[in-house]
Design brief:
three-stranded antiparallel beta sheet, Cathepsin D, subunit A, domain 1, eight-stranded mixed beta sheet
């Protein structure tokens, strides 16, 4: 397991880390991502599709209903990307592939499929500290 330190917030409570994506040019693009234990899949801004290599999954374009609330939906493109997670102190996981949803947003949310479903999340809200232990295999 690789232990990656988190940035922990209070009021509103939350935790974030960095997602590192390899670009078409071979360098890296970092984006801060909020850990969302209610997100089925990691959500990334649509503009990243022009920057990073990806493979669209068989599901491709999907209409996502937000928690089943009527009239609350958005479109995503489901794709597989190669990424790594990076903590505040520079600790990084190895690169791995995960399914993500690209959509029209400025925020990135770290979700379950391929990421949180293989991680152990540690949060100490009173001390505003935390880390994620991520299995080192796909």
């Amino acid at each position: 397991m690789t232990r990656v330190p988190l940035r922990v917030y209070q009021n509103p409570g939350g935790a974030e880390l960095f997602v590192r994506l390899t670009t078409h040019k071979g360098d890296y693009e970092w984006i801060a991502a909020t850990i969302d234990t209610g997100a089925e899949v990691t959500l990334l801004p649509l503009h990243l599709m022009a920057i990073v290599p990806y493979q669209i999954t068989a599901r491709g374009q999907i209409l996502v209903e937000q928690a089943g609330i009527a009239q609350q939906s958005f479109e995503v493109t489901e794709a597989r990307v190669t990424l790594a997670l990076e903590g505040l102190d520079g600790t990084q996981t190895g690169e791995f592939q995960a399914v993500v949803w690209f959509t029209d947003t400025q925020e990135a949310l770290l979700g379950f499929d391929g990421i949180l479903d293989r991680a152990i999340l540690h949060l100490d809200m009173p001390a505003l500290t935390g880390y994620i232990d991520l299995a080192d295999h796909n």
